[in-house]
């Protein structure tokens, strides 16, 4: 009996350590079918989910102004259109940030 306990305890502790090292990705499991125009206007960023590791479906994950995420199918036309709109919005905002107001030189 004592041998079984001494044998079982180290194996159990190794198993617990191995399971503790597993990380679960924040993956999309299904897509939203459509976002209405008002919701699409709230999109401020997006990221791609690829099918490796624990994620089983490819997806584009849009982040809204208040931080909410929506998983979308990258093959849908409206998704590619929204990606372009978000890219344009980010580009315009970057242009505004980098534009410097200078006084004309008098010389």
Automatic annotation (TrEMBL):
Keywords from the UniProt entry: Cytokine, Signal
GO cellular component terms, A-Z: extracellular space
CDD domains for the chain: Chemokine (cd00169)
Pfam families: IL8
Gene3D superfamilies named in the record: 2.40.50.40
A GO BP annotation: immune response
Domain Chemokine interleukin-8-like: 24-86
UniProt-recorded Gene Ontology molecular function terms: chemokine activity
Keyword Transmembrane helix in annotation: no
Signal peptide range: 1-20
Record-linked InterPro entries: Chemokine_b/g/d, Chemokine_IL8-like_dom, Interleukin_8-like_sf
Record keyword ATP-binding present: no
Matching PANTHER family: C-C MOTIF CHEMOKINE 21-LIKE-RELATED, SMALL INDUCIBLE CYTOKINE A
Protein name per Swiss-Prot or TrEMBL: CCL25
Lineage of origin: Eukaryota, Metazoa, Chordata, Craniata, Vertebrata
């Amino acid at each position: 009996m004592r041998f079984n306990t001494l044998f079982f305890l180290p194996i159990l502790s190794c198993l617990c350590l191995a399971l503790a090292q597993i990380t679960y990705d924040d993956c999309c499991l299904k897509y939203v079918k459509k976002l209405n125009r008002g919701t699409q206007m709230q999109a401020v960023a997006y990221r791609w989910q690829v099918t490796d590791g624990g994620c089983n479906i490819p997806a584009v994950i849009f982040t809204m102004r208040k931080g909410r995420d929506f998983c979308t199918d990258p093959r849908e036309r409206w998704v590619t259109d929204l990606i372009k709109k978000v890219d344009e919005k980010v580009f315009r905002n970057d242009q505004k940030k980098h534009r410097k107001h200078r006084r004309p030189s008098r010389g």
